[in-house]
Write a sequence for this structure.
């Protein structure tokens, strides 16, 4: 994995091969595949009933969401995309370490950026599909009001969010290459970041230090932008630009770190160990 | 970086040293392979045979020395593209996928189109008589079946250099014949085999003892 090859554009054949493989492997675990798909609607239902239970309670600022359910629904819908972008490379690479395929993969003429792109591909496609399905379920059966939505804005914010947060996923992958079980630590950190950024409660209810920290988290821009696009149909542009800028800077940086981690694992001779 | 290595050789190894935890597993090892060479790498367990193959394949970086594969540094994209490798690990396939889907995956990692990947896998299925293995999920294959699949993977890209780590260890007589037949049909491919078996050594032009 030479340094000069790190920033070459990924080859479509190679990336799509990894995406197809991940689809086939995921599909082979049929029960888990179905359970993962239905988990979101169950979560939506929980917040739907919580929202009905506390319908009369005075609300804090819900960032334009017409109800608490609408607010939390964005957390669940976007959470699927955030989780896919930020966690799946780490878990995927850990699986490769445990099953012994990582060395076989590294022996092929594949660039670091292609491994990253390929490992992100299927989880993101699956997550976008789930997000669309959750949105449809929330809209048709749970009364989520999306009459003001800017669909272009929503897609733009979701794509920019995936790009910005993919860098965290790639860094998690690098951590797994170096310290093996790093995906668990990274997973907890990303979960905490998602929660503190306003996934299911507004950041204004947090104690001061957390509230301040939350304002600088990329996930906060993702949640704010999604809510703006979905419930107001405007005001999402600024968040999308911030996320896009983060993606532009952080993705190449994280790929370079990933390539360095891969080189380090080869120097340490640990690609085949777990 | 490659120093005085002959860039016209398929493989050039100079002063290769690899340490693990301060212990030198390979020390100042030299080797040159030209087109069509068949070399058996021999030595007792722990003598560094597999480590040498891994260094050439680019999955382990040498502590010292230099390796050139078709004029490119070992581990570079070009170096890896020139190599077909079958390492001894049995668990180097995606167990939930069929043999065919595994081979198609590794073929496409070589930047082959889906159609070309299918064509090559079909050709290897015929040549190595892999029909039953390709149809089966890998977690339902025996060790010998997986080893045949591993050889097929190594041959997918028509490599200039074939690295085989104990390739016949779990094979029956018929599968061993098919393996050596496939190697012989690739007359210009250089082959480096780590082995203990006399039959494998006899099939090679020369042996290197570690």
């Amino acid at each position: 994995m030479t340094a000069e090859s790190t920033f070459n554009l990924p080859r479509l054949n190679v990336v799509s091969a990894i995406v197809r493989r991940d689809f086939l492997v995921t599909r082979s675990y049929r029960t888990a595949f179905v359970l993962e798909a239905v988990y979101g609607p169950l979560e939506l239902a929980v917040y739907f009933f919580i929202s009905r239970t506390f319908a009369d309670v005075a609300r804090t600022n819900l960032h334009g969401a017409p109800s608490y359910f609408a607010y939390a629904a964005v957390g669940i819908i976007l959470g699927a995309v955030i989780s896919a972008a930020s966690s799946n490379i780490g878990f995927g690479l850990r699986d490769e370490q445990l099953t012994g395929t990582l060395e076989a993969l590294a022996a092929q003429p594949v660039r670091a950026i292609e491994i990253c792109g390929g490992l992100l591909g299927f989880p993101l496609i699956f997550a976008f599909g789930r997000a669309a399905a959750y949105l449809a379920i929330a809209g048709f059966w749970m009364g989520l009001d999306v009459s003001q939505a800017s669909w272009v804005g929503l897609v733009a914010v979701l794509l920019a969010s995936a790009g910005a947060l993919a860098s965290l996923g790639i860094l998690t992958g690098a951590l797994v290459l170096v310290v093996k079980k790093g995906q668990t630590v990274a997973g907890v950190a990303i979960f905490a970041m998602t929660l503190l950024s306003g996934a299911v409660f507004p950041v204004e209810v947090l104690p001061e230090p957390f509230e301040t920290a939350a304002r600088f988290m990329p996930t906060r821009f993702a949640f704010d932008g999604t809510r703006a696009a979905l419930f107001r149909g405007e005001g999402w542009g600024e968040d999308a630009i911030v996320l896009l800028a983060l993606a532009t800077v952080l993705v190449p940086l994280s790929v370079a770190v990933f390539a360095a981690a891969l080189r380090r694992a080869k120097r340490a001779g640990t690609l085949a160990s777990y | 970086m490659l120093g005085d290595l002959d860039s016209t050789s398929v493989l050039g190894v100079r002063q290769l040293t690899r340490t693990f935890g301060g212990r030198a597993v390979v020390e100042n090892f030299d080797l040159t392979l030209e087109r069509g060479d068949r070399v058996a790498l021999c030595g007792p367990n722990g003598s560094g045979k597999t480590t040498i193959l891994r260094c050439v394949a680019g999955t382990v970086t040498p502590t010292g020395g230099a390796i050139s594969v078709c004029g490119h540094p070992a581990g570079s994209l070009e170096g890896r593209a020139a190599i077909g490798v079958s390492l001894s690990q049995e668990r180097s396939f995606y167990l939930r996928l069929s043999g065919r889907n595994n081979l198609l995956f590794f073929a496409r990692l070589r930047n082959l189109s889906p159609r070309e990947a299918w064509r090559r896998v079909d050709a290897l299925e015929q040549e190595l008589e892999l029909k039953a293995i390709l149809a089966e999920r890998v977690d339902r294959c025996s060790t010998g079946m997986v080893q045949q699949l591993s050889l097929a993977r190594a041959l997918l890209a028509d490599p200039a250099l074939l690295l085989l780590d104990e390739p016949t260890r779990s094979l029956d007589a018929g599968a061993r014949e098919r393996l050596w037949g496939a190697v012989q049909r690739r007359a210009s491919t250089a082959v480096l085999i780590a082995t203990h078996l006399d039959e494998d050594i006899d099939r090679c032009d020369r042996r290197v003892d570690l």
Remarks:
- Chain B has a mean pLDDT of 93.
- The longest helix of chain B spans residues 114-128.
- The CA atoms of residues 101 and 111 of chain B lie 16 Å apart.
- Helices of chain B lie at 49-57, 77-81, 99-108, 114-128, 131-135, 143-155, 173-185, 198-202.
